[in-house]
Specification:
The chain is an alpha/beta fold. The protein is about 35% helix and about 25% strand. The longest helix is centred in the first third of the chain and has 28 residues. Bound molecules: zinc ion. The site of zinc ion has 8 residues, from loops.
């Protein structure tokens, strides 16, 4: 059974309306309704699969077996982007604090943590997915946990990171409150999320791959992130773009919009939309995906 939210999961406002129906192109092919909060502008899947029943929506097996040569190249591109983004992420936290303590929530297979540790950070990773966690433990046996509750109460960090994770978390307010309780009094919270107001999101509309329903439960506008900081006692220090994301998201979106298009036209269109999206963004915060750097108040 799915669950229906009666209040906004970010600001608890009851002023919520159906906004658009989006198809899960990647796995189930089902349609999901996104609601919009009249107060904080958050878009959220509603109704949504419960936490204990969302697992199958992460099972991409079918998707892989039906894809053509576009898939292998897209995967290759994804790996390339991931590698360069690891260095970028470590560079970012090095710019905030010199080799302090780091908690990465939703650490996946822990490549980022491994590199941070190599650059003298004390690291801790949390990964709820059993499969990814097993791989993470293989790299960092002592540092990886399955959930927030396992982190010792008194453990506090200089930096907590959530890279493309917040949009997947069912208990949004509870999780953020717990996370910030593990932040030092002058600690940093770094959050990367897709931007539903970006030019590529507007171009693809309901076919925008950044929606990725029902795996993405929320989409944060600039205003949502302003409400986020006041709700959780944070102060926005600055935003930074993730410039490669517009290309990758556009490439997936091209396939959703025109499933029968050839590889060359798909790549060409994706490149153009991705390039234009970055160009139009013009200022930090308007890109396809953004990194928000908050400081605890
Ligand atoms: Zn709201």
């Amino acid at each position: 059974m799915s669950e229906r939210l009666l209040k906004c999961p970010l600001c608890k406002s009851g002023d919520i309306l159906n906004h658009v129906v989006v198809t899960d192109h990647a796995v189930s092919k089902k349609g999901f309704t996104l609601c919009r909060c009249g107060d904080c502008e958050l878009l959220f899947t509603n109704p949504r699969p419960k936490e204990e029943e969302i697992g199958p929506y992460y099972d991409f097996k079918e998707y892989y077996s039906h894809e053509d040569q576009v898939r292998s190249f897209t995967q290759w591109l994804y790996q390339k982007i991931r590698k360069s983004s690891i260095q970028r992420k470590v560079g970012l936290i090095n710019g905030l604090v010199k080799s302090g303590s780091l908690l990465d929530y939703g650490c996946g297979t822990a490549e980022f943590l491994q590199e941070a540790k190599r650059q003298r950070w004390t690291v801790r990773g949390i990964e709820p997915s059993e499969k990814a966690r097993a791989q993470a433990i293989g790299k960092l046996p002592a540092e990886i946990l399955g959930n927030l509750a396992e982190v010792p109460e008194q453990e506090v960090y200089d930096v907590v990171t959530l890279f493309h994770v917040l949009e997947h978390v069912h208990s949004l307010r509870k999780t953020v409150k717990k996370i910030t309780s593990h932040l030092k009094s002058d600690g940093y919270l770094v959050i990367a999320v897709p931007n539903p107001e970006s030019a590529d999101a507007k171009h693809y509309g309901k076919d925008w791959a950044g929606y990725d329903v029902p795996r993405h439960l929320y989409h944060f506008s600039e205003k949502s992130m302003t409400i986020f900081q006041s709700e959780f006692g944070m102060e926005l220090v600055r935003t930074e773009p993730l410039v490669y994301d517009s290309y990758y998201v556009s490439l997936l979106s091209e396939g959703y919009k025109k499933p029968n298009s050839g590889m060359i036209s798909r790549y060409l269109n994706a490149f153009l939309v991705g390039y234009r999206s970055n160009k139009k963004a013009a200022k930090p915060g308007n890109y396809s995906s953004n990194i928000f750097i908050f400081k605890k108040k």
